[in-house]
Structures are given as C-alpha cells and as structure tokens.
Design brief:
Helix content: over 70%
Number of strands: 0
Largest sheet: none
Structural class: mainly alpha
Number of domains: 1
Shape: elongated
Distance between the termini: 12 Å
Order of helices and strands: HHH
Radius of gyration: 13 Å
Number of helices: 3
Strand content: under 5%
Length: about 70
C-alpha cells in the first residue's frame, strides 16, 4: 500500500466512523466527520498532512495519487 492510499483509507475510515458514531451513539460525534473534512481541505491547500507524516514514519512507501 502506498502513502497516498493509506492516507485516503484512513480519512475515509474516520469519516465513516464519525457518521456511524453520530447515528448510533450521540449526534455530537458528527464533529469528528467535520474535523476530517476540514483537515482534508487544509491539506489540499497547504500540503501539510499529519497522517501522511505518521504513515511515512511507519515506513509506508510513497506513491502517486490516483495512479
């Protein structure tokens, strides 16, 4: 798995987990989904992604998105 796919998989998991938790546990969990969305937008503009840095340190190989 490449770094791009790892980050996208992680972001998707966080979004789905936030929606599921908001539906089944408490509506305030929707803020987890909001945080994930805002983080994806800021990463698109700034190029800074903490998840990518963590995955890189864990040894995930770099890759090209959507290739």
């Amino acid at each position: 798995m490449t770094l791009d796919r790892a980050v996208m998989t992680f972001a998707g998991t966080v979004v789905l987990a936030g929606v599921a938790l908001a539906h089944f546990v408490h509506p305030a969990w929707i803020w987890l989904t909001v945080f994930a969305g805002v983080n994806m937008i800021q990463a698109a503009f700034t190029g800074f992604c903490l998840a990518a840095m963590v995955f890189k340190r864990l040894g995930v190989t770099p890759g090209l998105a959507f290739k």
